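Reader question, answered in our methods column.
A reader sent in the components of a multi-part assembly and asked whether the whole thing could be modeled at once rather than chain by chain. We filled in our standard form and ran it. Here is what they sent:
COMPLEX SIZE: two components
ENTRIES:
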Amino acid sequence: MSGTLNVTKGVNVEILQDGFEVALNGVVLLQHTIQKPMLFVGHGEETIEMYRGNFDIKDYVTERTALRYANVEEMEGAYKIDLSNLKNGDTMLSLIVKEEENRLKVEYQKNDANINRFWLRVAADKQEKVYGCGEQLSHFNMRGKNFPLWTSEPGVGRNKQTYVTWQADVVDKAGGDYYNTNFPQPTYVSSKKYYCHVETTAYADFDFRNEAFHELQVWEVPKYMLFETADTYLELVEKITGLFGRQPELPEWVYNGVVLGIQGGTDVVEQKLEKVLAKGMKVSGVWCQDWQGKRITSFGKRLMWNWKWNESEYPELDKKIAEWKENDIRFLGYINPYVAIEGDLYKEAEDKGYLALNTEGNTYLVDFGEFYCGVVDFTNEEATEWYKQVIKENMIDFGLDGWMADFGEYLPTDVVLKNRIDAKIMHNAWPTMWAKVNYEAVSEAGKLGEIVYFMRAGYTGIQKYCTLLWGGDQSVDWSLDDGLASVIPAALSSGMIGCGLHHSDIGGYTSLHGNKRSKELLMRWAEMGAFTPMMRTHEGNRPDDCFQFDGDEETLEHLARMSNVYVTMAPYIKSLVEENARRGIPVQRPLFMHYEEDEKTYDIQYQYLFGEDVLVAPVHQENQTEWEVYLPEDQWVHVWSGEAYTGGSVTVQAPLGYPPVFYRKKSIWSELFSKLIHI
Amino acid sequence: MSGTLNVTKGVNVEILQDGFEVALNGVVLLQHTIQKPMLFVGHGEETIEMYRGNFDIKDYVTERTALRYANVEEMEGAYKIDLSNLKNGDTMLSLIVKEEENRLKVEYQKNDANINRFWLRVAADKQEKVYGCGEQLSHFNMRGKNFPLWTSEPGVGRNKQTYVTWQADVVDKAGGDYYNTNFPQPTYVSSKKYYCHVETTAYADFDFRNEAFHELQVWEVPKYMLFETADTYLELVEKITGLFGRQPELPEWVYNGVVLGIQGGTDVVEQKLEKVLAKGMKVSGVWCQDWQGKRITSFGKRLMWNWKWNESEYPELDKKIAEWKENDIRFLGYINPYVAIEGDLYKEAEDKGYLALNTEGNTYLVDFGEFYCGVVDFTNEEATEWYKQVIKENMIDFGLDGWMADFGEYLPTDVVLKNRIDAKIMHNAWPTMWAKVNYEAVSEAGKLGEIVYFMRAGYTGIQKYCTLLWGGDQSVDWSLDDGLASVIPAALSSGMIGCGLHHSDIGGYTSLHGNKRSKELLMRWAEMGAFTPMMRTHEGNRPDDCFQFDGDEETLEHLARMSNVYVTMAPYIKSLVEENARRGIPVQRPLFMHYEEDEKTYDIQYQYLFGEDVLVAPVHQENQTEWEVYLPEDQWVHVWSGEAYTGGSVTVQAPLGYPPVFYRKKSIWSELFSKLIHI
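And here is the structure of the entire assembly that came back:
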């Protein structure tokens, strides 16, 4: 067979002398010849070791076979491609190539039970850039590196060159690397304006190091892959969220100001509120992680992990929540999918058989760092319903308007689950299951759009079920890979694959190995936070080693001013959040999303567009009074000086309190933006 | 075909239902079935980057195919085994199995030009231990780890957990790991009492992590492999050196005392000699690296690398050498296979076309750390003869009685050589070629057995051509992987594969990243040095950061005493060196070599037998006054107290100056050993 075959209007299969080519709307995606096969299969024997959410994963690939020989067969509305490692040999793997809802769908069927490794090459160009793969903290454009996709702790330091990383590795095996993330996803977006999604929850590794192809490795034969093209990046992210789902809007109350992360009990909250309100701070809520109690470990302050009001820690909280709400200040708490062994929830869950088991049939205990927990088994429908009930009764009914829905990355690979599916396959699925538990609890309580829960863990499908991402536990420093800066590529990458609402702990979280949060870092982080969907502070894991928002008058006044900036911007932010809910266009966007002709924008990862009309270039280094910003060609106005710019690299004054922010002169919101100069 | 076929008396090929088995003298070495194939071939694309002798090597294995299907054919005195990945498929690789000089020889022929990766599995038992693979500094028994075999700098620190390693990595990419070594070799010895040698100089990686097999990876199809068995370990090392060759004896003068590493010129040597001789130190020689001049770099004191007497640095050296020799003190120098760009040797070699080229046809310059050198091309016979002449004229004729023949590990993989063989294949061959240059220069001058040169780099064949190994550049610390202790497994492993003469820099060498040599370290190292074939001190790379042998009176007296211990032991040591020259039995031996029934001895790597009759357990930790020693069952006498022991774990007093050393009561040398108590 030879010549061109159009399966449908979009998908085009070209039969070549010794192979074939598959294109979608003119974009060549798969190229196969005997000399350059696009598919390899084989067998590997992995070892996976977890230490407190950090994984040591090794693979011993015993076989990897090129499937050089293809036989293409026409079917109704589809093509079947049989692949073999030999001419006229037995089919080892079959592909069904078809169009489905304007997407190219490639389904896979393996004919050899021994196959547990799969490497597919997607055609690439030298100049091509790729983005996505979940939330990537070190590299927005992933070209030139490979990205293991396995949900885990993101690492402390995340750069083997730094002292903090080295110490974290030595002490806790926790240093991490550029690719470690709470939220991986086997989905990427190419600058050739297509997305590619692999439907799998197995361990995967997407390798973007080669010039002529991207090699997608999966530790199973995936069910299928999807490709979709678009004319613009906006249309592309719209299509991505058309596939994965879109987030609801944020609650109205979020726009009232900053959410203050406070711990220590009712009195402390009261005192701090009084103090900040007197300073004119706009406060939308208080977020008290320790509403359910706390414990002290060598890592720092940790929580009790028994998900209900801790009356001794927060006396009269039931009354206070209502009182604060009357004053437009909401109360937010904390939960995660584990129950600590000392708590009554653990006892109840264990009695009812709701916890995951070990291979001996006993409750599997996970080490979270000097304390142990059971894993609520979300593959057990009754357990899931029970946990939703815990959320509804203990949190929603109690009056909480939001919470951190923490963790989700720790499912051990040797745990025994109710559904009997290998935990290696369920591991990556867990974050989305955890998100869904929250989503259903909230929606069943009729509170979608009124409650906000924020998560760091994610995987395919999180788009629909997670109301807001937070960037995870950054180190309280200026490091590119784990400090303030890292949050920006995190927001941009997750936004590219459909999670358009992102924010981070103002000030960062992890203070270890001598790393302490400075006042300046806290202030710069707050400046950035004012230009994200939600502002929220965090005390950090070791509050005494972290400068706090009420550490001195200047910092208090700075945060108060930034909360006013945020509130001033709120109508605009709300419109962006609405656009995200409706079309899936992220609130924080890479510059190329609106300036795709400008090649320079494709490698910018420490600036972002805040909607179409605002450009933000957070100061992410210490001791800066001015900052260099790249502006794509347009008419820009610097918000603090009113000065006009037309594009290119410009240096602006950027003292504390005045982050480099610009708006488009032609924006319909320009009047609103022009108010910032007066704050 | 089925049943048993004896190729010859020793080699036995058993034809199985779906495979075959090859044994030598009853030891099953190769086992092959369709389900558990013993051979895999494939294709890889490597990237090799060198930075000052440290290599970053990555492999992208695109294909790895199990050769499951075997066809065994009888030939004259041999069996031919054709292997295919398919039943009745084309032969991808053929094996010729035969017996040659009582060895099992397996030759390989590839039928597919695309194959550049080769993985062979040798049958293994769970309890089996393996040793050798060149000079291994971290692990004597290699079971449980894999060992890349590529000559390189061994690393500074060699353990990612240590600060020194981390800093060395960050600053110079030089931290290294447990397997990095100047002297790798694709040869190992099994506790099943066989050796296995792979004939190749390509990159290799021997993987001893699996229970049922050892997987030997080679980046080419090797020419052949050899196996040989023996009844005892002594017989086995004798057979190994029967294959690779044996070292000549050390010169007589070596036994006169310690060789003092001194730098700084004639006057400094004179002054130091006067001082130490007055203390009663026994001195056999002075070793002046900087006899050919020096330079200062950020690393420390470096040499000029223009191999001839530097008269301004060493005035009247020509006369002094003769004068010292009359007083039984020899002069030793330094050379390596590179010529610095500033020197006249470089100019001469470049003019004559003796230097290796880059791909543009110009002289290839290698960065040795703030200075550049040409590579004398030993694949060019004229260049080799010229360099031998340099050694003969500038060193031997000038009166040198020994030298450090440094380096050999730095051949860049992109260098163009006269013989046009890929430098990736020549890289591992280089150390032995360099050794051969020295060997031939010395033997052609009629000085074999009178001159000693010591090397750190090695590879297959070094056994015959290197008169003495030194352990390379240890860090001046107590670390197991790179300090004093590391020298012991280094001596044991190289001894197992036929390099029976080993010694090390007393005090270690590398002082970087805050690491400074303490007085105690120097003293402990000297104690160990007295129980090695040759005692030699080193100032270190940063002499001012290293405590020196003349740093104070106590240290001087300690070294003087140790030199007397060495001289007292000399007749015994000489007999061991003679045994090594005659039979290839190493001077430093693992305990199991004489106590093979004692299972505990197989994992002891920080003690050694010094010949059959002396057991040495160097104190390799700081601040020790006593030391625990394991003694195999025998009648032992503690040399310093005369106390008798019969075996087991014993703790002895081990203050400075009294290293834990024992001798066999029944030894014919016991009278000699009993003299030590009086020193």
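What stands out: Chain A touches chain B at residues 40, 42, 61-66, 85-86, 89, 160-161, 163, 166, 169-170 (CB under 8 Å). The domain at 3-229 of chain A is CATH 2.70.98 (Beta-galactosidase; Chain A, domain 5).
Send us your own complexes using the same form.
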